[in-house]
Amino acid sequence: MSGDKRxxxxxxxxxxxxxxxxxxxxxxxxAHVGNYPGVTVEQKWGELSHRGRTIKVVDLPGTYSLxxxxxxxxxxxxxxxxxxxxxAVNVIDTTNLERNxxxxxxxxxxGLPVVLAMNMMDLSSARGISINMAQLEAGLGVKAVPIVAxxxxxxEALLDKALETADEPDRAWRPLKISYGPDIDEAIEVIEExxxxxxxxxxxxxxxWLAVKCLEGDPAVGELFAGEASQAAVLAEGxxxxxxxxxxxxADDELAGLMTDRRYGFLAGLCRAAITRTRQDVREISDxxxxxxxxxxxxxxxxxxxxxxxxxxxxWASGPVVGWLESFFEFLGxxxxxxxxxxxxxxxxxxxxxGGVGGVLGFAPLIAFMFIGxxxxxxxxxxxxxxxxxxxxxxxxxxHGNSVTALIVGGGIAGGCAIPGVMATxxxxxxxxxxxxxxxxxxxxxxxxxxxxxxxxxxxxxENAPAVxxxxxxxxxxxxxxxxKILRIFVLPxxxxxxVLELPPYRRPTFSGVLLHAWERTWSYxxxxxxxxxxxxxxxxxxxxxxKLPEEQKAFFEGRIEASAALIENARNSEGLPxxxxxxxxxxxxxxxxxxxxxxxxxxxxxxxxxxxxxxSRLIGFDWRANIALVGGFAAKEVVLSTxxxxxxIDAGAAAEGEGLDGEETLRQRLGERLxxxxxxxxxxxxxxMVFVLIYAPCFVTIVVIYRxxxxxxxxxxxxxxxxYAYLICLALYQGGGIFV
Amino acid sequence: xxIISMRKMAARQxxxxxxxxxxxEVGLRIREMGLTPGAAIVIVGRAPLNDPVHIKLYGxxxxxRNNEADHIMVEVAAAPSGAEGAE
Lengths: 741, 87
Fold this sequence. Notes:
The structure holds two protein chains of two kinds.
Chain A: E1 7-13, H1 19-27, E2 32-35, E3 42-50, E4 53-59, H2 71-83, E5 87-93, H3 97-110, E6 114-119, H4 121-126, E7 129-131, H5 133-140, E8 143-146, H6 155-166, H7 182-196, H8 207-216, H9 219-227, H10 231-251, H11 255-274, E9 275-277, H12 284-293, H13 299-339, H14 344-361, H15 364-380, H16 382-396, H17 403-411, H18 418-423, H19 431-440, H20 450-460, H21 465-491, E10 501-503, H22 511-545, H23 551-573, H24 581-603, H25 605-612, H26 614-618, H27 624-632, H28 639-647, H29 663-676, H30 683-695, H31 700-710, H32 712-740
Parallel strand pairs in A: 1-4, 1-5, 5-6, 6-8
Antiparallel strand pairs in A: 2-3, 3-4, 7-9
Helix pairs in contact in A: 3-11, 5-11, 7-8, 7-10, 8-10, 13-14, 13-15, 14-22, 15-22, 19-21, 20-21, 20-29, 20-30, 21-30, 22-31, 23-24, 24-25, 25-27, 27-28, 28-29, 30-32, 31-32
Chain B: E1 2-5, E2 14-20, H1 24-32, E3 40-46, E4 53-57, E5 60-64, H2 66-69, E6 72-76
Antiparallel strand pairs in B: 1-6, 2-3, 2-6, 3-4, 4-5
């Protein structure tokens, strides 16, 4: 009796069949997220208890089939074969039985025990679809339980059936035999015999399934046969080739296609018997919305409005939270500042830890609300429509309609963030299209680059600053698309992935679904960033702090500060001095302090790197100060601004309060004035700097996320490649522009 | 009755899939989504740049690119009146 054994369920189904809702209803907030072994496909699992038994539910990727063409399908298949869950719970959208049952057939041909969760029964009965469950169960040899995943209806019965199936004494996998017609059936039997005579059955895969997949020309099974040196495997492959050639000659038919057609034929017969349609299946509301939103003339207008709305929502909702976080880190800084002794440790905590970590975490609310916005768009069904509207454009550049989310979120209109952008590429099924999208998403004008652009644009192009900002956003798009094309030609060549894409009916997103979805993604970001954030901020702080100024220079500045302090002291004790003199002296003293910081930065490792790079950076218009700032910008792009401020000894402090500006605005204004009046900075150099900031290495958190999504190789490629690429663009721009200006 | 490729079909035109040409991944993906002989389809419309095409199959919306629609031969009631659906 296996009465107390833990049960493992693989939860499977088509995309949009309600698998996520069911998973959330079953496991609640107790879900764990990890990766499938060896790949970056996300695996979610959770545990629940039913009738005193522990049930582990593993969420399989949403797929239409179980071929080995796409990574998701291979992962699902490998999990079922290698991990051998007790059963698969197959979520079925009952409004679309024919297509949903196609995946079911794939499980049944593999032989694994299946329980059908017949989802959306409320919708299907509202549409006049009546399903004879007994007939369906008999036709497929499985159990089917009607449920409504969103409301939780029928889940008890579903779990009962799952337990019952898992506890059946005979646990052998028994593949369902579908008839493919005499020719193919005969070949299947021949290959099945040959497989049985080889060592392939040792791999836990049923012989009949291997024979079916061999005939379909499945790449992974093909490799398995090729790797199998035995006579039997060679014979099996030969049988397939002969049959395929004969069919092509006789009927101009593809073997694999024919087999799919036969499966659909089988399902059509089954559905005819099991489904009664009491009235015409219409989807009035969804179709009416599509008539407007997908109208050929209006679609782009609605699309732009939706994108604009996404940004408005994100900033409107996250604004206060970002403010609270900023105040919190300010408070933390003040507390530490007041309670710690002056010295390196204090500097490290204040500037390195609180400043750096605060700067990066400060973006978390923005990212969280961006994710909420995306989840609403995805769950409502609009994102699939956006992919449909824009696919033609993206395809021209070697991308896919589904790349649209990543690029919009990355900063399609100024102010996004590359991190959620990179994470939003998971809907791209083709690995090459996905990698190309990930590599170019950081070229958009993200929120952290904006303050830098605003400073430079205002300083050098005062009246035309808005046009310059707009130009940078457009340039970001152009750079992303053109670079994607270059990548797809030279680095990631390959055929475009098929686009056969479902437009799910519009649905009102559920509050809990959206929140859970957004929370998972935000938490995943915080975890990914959190693991490295402290280390990298400290390293960058160390680079900008050490080595310290040599003693004689330090003594020189200290002497001047002491002298200045003595002057102030004197002035305080004397009478009859002109008003404002003390303030002026105080200012001078502060200026000496800033000069010391600037000299210190120049002397530091980062400063030395900046100076060493000057011969190169001169060619694109930057001096060593800009170079240091760009090194600092790797921590987070907005750091470029504050580092430039230090390098130019800009006073962004107290004096600005009277003008009603905050620290950043003051810094931006004064730094801008300083640069604009500097003979070394021309408008051309300013443009070059903005373009460089736009394109060069993504910030380290993005790099970490890229590493987690597609591996170390591409993270390094993005880091170095983007920087070299930015340099080349700026070189052409600055040197080319120099000829005309 | 005539058989034309799905690319040539006009908006709102309906028909029954006669056959799907071609193998490989694209041929398989098309069929796996239910675009197999005997299935009834309606062209709903096309994207702003005339590609991809939006169809209804078993009452559900599907989209596919014109070069994928080329693989699908559809039996339609009559030849389309104009070149409305073609590129």
